Amino acid sequence: MKALITGATSGIGMSIAKNLRKRGWELILTGRNEKVLKHMQKVFGGTEIITADLSVKSDVFRVYDFCKDKNIDMLVNNAGYGIFGRFDETNLNDEIDMINVNITAVHILMKLFLRDFRYRNYGIILNVASLAGFLTGPLMSSYYASKNYVVRLSIAVAEELRREKSDVKITVLCPGPVSTNFNSRAGVTFSVKPLSADYVADYAVRKALSGQLIAVPGLMMKAGVALSGFVPHRILAMLVYGIQKRKESADGTEKI
Fold first, then answer.
1. CATH number 3.40.50.720 is the correct assignment for the domain at 2-245
2. How far apart are the first and last CA of the chain?
3. Does the predicted TM-score (pTM) go above 0.85?
4. What value does the mean pLDDT of the chain take?
5. Which of 233, 193, 177, 162 is closest to 12 using CA atoms?
């Protein structure tokens, strides 16, 4: 079995890579940090790497071209990052790059690999979203919106596959706070203890292998998703604004 993992050089992506390798999977890893990729290749064995910046559309297609004849069994769309600040004040070019990584790259790779998977009627797509994918996020509006896109796209395509009785499976991972470099660099302090990246990765892999569509690790986060469906959007936006306001002094940007 072989998996392609984007954003593999840190956080959840690196933990998913470690988890799958322990399970005996061969890996193709991609990210911007070539030094870390080469280290992972050396440590893991049975691993190929391709350095790419997924904010650049041509790099996204280059990753697919590198992988398309390698019999990929699982696509892990993990690469992504967030930008903090008021919508009218955040840097437009930075936001466009984020949208390209969080939405455009996910969309392209999902579509291209899905075509291959449908042809042979087997394959797993694991899209890494966030609890933010169920919410509106003042002060991180573009990031929350991008994760909403990933969640809704995943659910919609999964229904198309279910209708045709396809054996191709889609899982969308929607974690709450996770202890990663993103959080420490952004200066975030959570009122809820963040989960470890290794725990979230193992949870995600297990749910993906079992074919579960929506994977929300942690009982409190599951409850939060359930309750979000009953709270008016304006109230949710007010609550999220209060949470995000505490991060106002942080830069809040990290690419993986």
1. yes
2. 25
3. yes
4. 90
5. 177
